[in-house]
């Protein structure tokens, strides 16, 4: 019985220091954010981290003079060091930047008095929905595509969500995928490549893989070049934002930034740049001027993925260094005509599937496939039961439970079969998914 007593002591002693209220709050938080853990020990550790973050949030929100509030968001089970290690990817060279091919300097500007008192590019349809970079330091790619999406809408009238994954996989001359990068290098890559593919065609999966050369050739949106806003010149930055959304580097690794909920963020934070975001507008409230920033941490962070950050702070570098590294793409020419629809997918010399489908072997002997079926999903994973397929971004087949899975962070995200159906030329594959289970 001594071993049982030891186990009970290990379980009950830590819990005795944790209030029942916080433990109940943690259980509700886990359900809200779909968090599961590999073991009871891991869950207990996360509860302790959650409790510490809860105390930090409570202390801050009780401050009478703060212009912003914090919350127990989706990152509330991470220590500050864990959070910093997983979400930041602005290249270290951003703090001592020598550009290989510097963008054009800002040319001329009108008086600040000539700009509108407030502006929000979301209201003009020039901003795509908030995205989530996951545990990949690719913030630079999301900032860059956001700026290109904005100028493309302004020039052509079309809002097209563009492929961060193409930048992560293929832009390797100076950027390093999930290891970090800079927006200027991404802009130059798009210029050199004569355009960038759409998110729909080259979707984001949160990790670097080999470059898909076929998709690299699908240049849907083009830019002409890019412009660097003079460092620490907030007036010039405001002039730039009046014309289009602007990419900026900031210090996003402060603990308050991790747990930010709403209001105008005023720091404190350093000017050591480690994160990239997109300025999509500006405004003022109660005498406090602020920028409207689009982040790439999903809609569960901040104000549905956005943060207000103080401007005109009196510091030339700006709050969190926001005035130090700003740039935006230029565009005057139309996009190329849309690429032709994909042709048939060849399975072998006698068999093919329709464009956008995946060939999956239904019968194999001595390593040779004698019978093929078609999965309606593009670049799908063919399950070993020879009857199902999963999307490439949910590559783990669980045919017993009709699930497609992928590992992410501390848990597993699931897609489940919602309805059965057959499709394709050869008797049809059944995809294991139809809707989210979160």
TrEMBL record:
From its record, what is one biological process in GO terms? Answer: proteolysis
Q: What is this protein called?
A: Uncharacterized protein
Q: Give start and end of each Granulins domain.
A: 347-404
Q: Which UniProt keywords apply?
A: Disulfide bond, Glycoprotein, Hydrolase, Protease, Signal, Thiol protease
Domain Peptidase C1A papain C-terminal positions = 115-330
Spell out the molecular function terms from Gene Ontology.
Answer: cysteine-type peptidase activity
Q: Does the keyword Hydrolase apply?
A: yes
Which protein family is it in?
A: Belongs to the peptidase C1 family.
By its UniProt entry, which PROSITE patterns does this protein fall under?
A: THIOL_PROTEASE_ASN (PS00640), THIOL_PROTEASE_CYS (PS00139), THIOL_PROTEASE_HIS (PS00639)
Q: SUPFAM superfamilies recorded for this chain? A: Cysteine proteinases, Granulin repeat
Query: Transmembrane stretches, by residue range?
Result: none
């Amino acid at each position: 019985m001594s071993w049982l007593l030891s186990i009970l002591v290990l379980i009950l002693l830590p819990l005795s220091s944790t209030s029942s209220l916080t433990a109940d709050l943690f259980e509700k938080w886990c359900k809200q954010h779909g968090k599961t853990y590999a073991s009871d020990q891991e869950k207990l550790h996360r509860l302790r981290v959650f409790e510490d973050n809860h105390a930090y949030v409570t202390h801050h929100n009780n401050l009478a003079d703060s212009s912003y509030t914090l919350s127990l968001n989706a990152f509330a089970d991470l220590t500050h060091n864990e959070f910093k290690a997983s979400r930041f990817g602005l290249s270290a060279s951003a703090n001592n930047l020598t550009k290989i091919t510097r963008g054009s300097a800002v040319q001329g500007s009108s008086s600040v008095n000539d700009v509108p008192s407030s502006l929000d590019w979301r209201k003009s349809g020039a901003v795509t929905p908030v995205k989530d970079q996951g545990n990949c330091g690719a913030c630079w790619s999301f900032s860059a595509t956001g700026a290109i999406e904005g100028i493309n809408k302004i020039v052509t009238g079309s809002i097209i969500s563009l492929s961060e994954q193409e930048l992560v996989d293929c832009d390797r001359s100076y950027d390093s995928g999930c290891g970090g990068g800079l927006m200027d290098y991404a802009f130059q890559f798009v210029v050199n490549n004569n355009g960038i593919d759409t998110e729909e065609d080259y979707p984001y999966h949160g990790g670097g893989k080999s470059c898909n050369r076929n998709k690299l050739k699908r240049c849907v949106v083009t830019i002409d070049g890019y412009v660097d806003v003079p460092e620490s010149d907030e007036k010039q930055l405001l002039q730039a934002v009046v014309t289009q959304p602007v990419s900026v580097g900031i210090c996003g690794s402060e603990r308050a930034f991790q747990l930010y909920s709403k209001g105008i963020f005023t720091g404190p934070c350093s000017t050591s740049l480690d994160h990239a975001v997109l300025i999509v507008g500006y405004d003022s409230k109660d005498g406090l001027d602020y920028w409207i920033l689009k982040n790439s941490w999903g809609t569960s962070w901040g104000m549905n993925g956005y943060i207000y950050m103080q401007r005109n702070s009196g510091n030339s570098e700006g709050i969190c260094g926001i005035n130090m590294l700003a740039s935006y793409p230029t565009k005057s020419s139309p996009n190329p005509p849309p690429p032709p629809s994909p042709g048939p997918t060849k399975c072998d010399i006698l068999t093919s599937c329709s464009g956008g489908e995946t060939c999956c072997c239904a019968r194999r002997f001595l390593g040779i496939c004698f019978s093929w079926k078609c999965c309606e999903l593009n670049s799908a994973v063919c399950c070993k039961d020879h009857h199902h397929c999963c999307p490439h971004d949910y590559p783990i087949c669980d045919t017993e439970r009709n699930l497609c899975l992928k590992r992410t962070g501390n848990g597993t995200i699931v897609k489940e079969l919602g309805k059965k159906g057959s499709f394709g030329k050869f008797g049809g594959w059944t995809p294991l998914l139809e809707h989210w289970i979160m």
